[in-house]
Design goal:
Keywords: Coiled coil. Residues 5-88 form a coiled coil. Helices cover 96% and strands 0% of the residues. The protein is mostly helical and 158 residues long. Helix 1 (2-121) packs antiparallel against helix 2 (127-157). It starts with a helix and ends with a helix.
Amino acid sequence: MEILLRQLLEGQQQITKRLDRMEESQQQITNRLDRMEESQQQITKRLDRMEESQQQITKRLDRMEEGQQQLKEAITELKATVTNIEGQQIENSRFIHALRHNSEEVNAQLHNIGHNLAVLTGRAATKEDISELNAKFDLLNNRLFQQEAAIHQLKAVK
């Protein structure tokens, strides 16, 4: 009986040791679970920060798209302005060409007047003739100067 009691006592001690090991193992598992929960909370916080960051990036992209649209509109307006300026430049060039042509005509008429005067009078020019010619030259030179000034102003507008 004594043997049986010893065996029972030894069995009970073994069961107690096994229970102790199981309690230690359970405590280790609990500690690991606590660490896992902490890690999960840290991961959740990081994900929250990443979501906030993503929202900020989305807002910045939206602002950039708005700015790009505004730039496109400004470029369209500039193209229209350039087209208008080109049309005005063509018109100014035609006007300048017409003024130059008129100036050349005035010069030809002046030369013709001098030639006709010499043919009609058939004589050498007197002081009066020279004075009249000088007056006509002055008049024509003034017209020419005014036309060239107008040409210069139109070129400056370009």
